[in-house]
From TrEMBL:
Gene3D superfamilies cross-referenced by the UniProt entry: Vaccinia Virus protein VP39
Protein known as: Uncharacterized protein
Top-rank lineage group of the source organism: Bacteria
InterPro entries: SAM-dependent_MTases_sf (IPR029063)
Length: 102
C-alpha cells in the first residue's frame, strides 16, 4: 500500500489523506433529496439537500426566467492566505442563480 492513497472520511463528511489534509468531499446519494444531519461549526446541524435540477425547475415552474447561474470560486490572490482556501477550488461550495419573474 502506498502512502497518499489511503483516505478516511473525516469530520463534516470530508475525505482526507493519511496526513489529515483535505482531499475532497464525497458525493453520495446525490439524487435523494432530503434533510441530512451534519457537523458545521457545531454538532447536529440540519441541512437540506436538493439537486441543482430542483432549484432551476422550481424557478421555471413558478414563472421565473433564469438569467444566470454561477458557481463562485476564490480569487487567485485569496488562495495565498489562508492556504486552506485551496479546497474551495476542488468543488463548488455555492450556487448562485439569477432569476426574474415573467
Amino acid at each position: 500500500m502506498r502512502a497518499g492513497i489511503i483516505f478516511k472520511v473525516g469530520q463534516a463528511d470530508t475525505c482526507t489523506n493519511i496526513r489529515g489534509n483535505f482531499r475532497y468531499l464525497p458525493v453520495d446519494c446525490y439524487q435523494q433529496q432530503s434533510s441530512r444531519n451534519t457537523t458545521w461549526f457545531v454538532e447536529n446541524v440540519i441541512k437540506y439537500h436538493r439537486m441543482v435540477e430542483n432549484y432551476v425547475s422550481t424557478l421555471l415552474d413558478c414563472g421565473f426566467t433564469l438569467e444566470g447561474l454561477k458557481e463562485p470560486k476564490p480569487l487567485a490572490s485569496a488562495l495565498k492566505e489562508p492556504p486552506d482556501l485551496e479546497r474551495y477550488t476542488r468543488y463548488a461550495p455555492f450556487l448562485v442563480l439569477k432569476a426574474v419573474k415573467r
